[in-house]
Write a structure and sequence with these properties.
Layout lengths: L10 H20 L9 H7 L7 H8 L3 H13 L3 E6 L2 E9 L1 H21 L5 H23 L1
Helix pairs in contact: 1-5, 2-5, 3-4
Length: 148
């Protein structure tokens, strides 16, 4: 007889559940700025005024190129990013936040930090550090597995 699946004992299920809840909570916070949680990696990567290639942004965000392309297309449509020629390579473009999006960047960062604070509020400082360390190890293990 097969043992019944207990979602609260599954690291994959619990991590996915937490990720979905994080995304919903962050979406709720950044919606008023016209931003979604899926756009946050772009804000984090470009919020200091940097201009990066789409390929670099996809690598930083750890998402596939087509997903990044779709995200950037929506952000460009909404006036959040602009593309400019790469001075080192005339065939490629760099992506930067528009001045309007730069004004939102700090609010987006604060919204993410606020949700993180709420999510980890019931943990001690030592537990927070341990949680992040252990989560980092899980991520490293999965990345290694997927490289093969």
């Amino acid at each position: 007889m097969q043992k019944r699946f207990e979602r609260t004992r599954s690291s994959g299920y619990m991590t996915n559940w937490a990720a979905r809840l994080f995304a919903r909570a962050i979406d709720r916070r950044v919606k008023e700025f016209g931003v979604s949680s899926g756009q946050m990696p772009v804000f984090f990567a470009l919020g200091d005024g940097a201009a990066l290639s789409q390929k670099a942004l996809a690598a930083i965000a750890s998402i596939e190129q087509p997903t990044m392309a779709a995200t950037l297309s929506r952000m460009e449509r909404d006036g959040m990013i602009e593309r400019r020629p790469d001075p080192r390579d005339g065939r490629s473009q760099l992506v930067a936040l528009t001045p309007e999006a730069m004004e939102k960047a700090l609010k987006v960062k604060e919204a993410g930090m606020s949700v993180n604070a709420v999510a980890l509020a019931d943990l001690t400082e030592a537990e927070r550090e341990q949680f992040l360390e252990l989560l980092g190890k899980v991520i490293t293990s999965l990345e290694k597995m997927l490289e093969d």
